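Bug #2210: token dump truncated for UPF0335 protein GAO09_29350?
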Amino acid sequence: MSDAHGVARDQLRAFIERIERLEEEKKTIADDIKDVYGEAKSMGYDTKIMKKVIALRKKDDQERMEEDLILDTYLSALGMIPGAGAEEEEAAA
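Reproduced locally. Full output below:
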């Protein structure tokens, strides 16, 4: 085997081993997060809402505003916002 093949093999092995270590760290962190959610739940917090709050905090204000407007539009179109769309219903009657 040439020296170039040996170097490439060693590099590949190093990349694979680094990825494996990072995957293990990722699993450990995921387990830690799960434990924190469990602790919060045992204290009476709603973990579904906590996850939504965390997702919202990852977004900037503009992105959140755009999503809120689209959500309101969809909910209104489906008649899921009380009082919204009353003008259309009266006009149809």
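Output looks complete on our side. Residues 3-42 form the longest helix (40 residues). Marking as cannot-reproduce; reopen if the truncation happens again.
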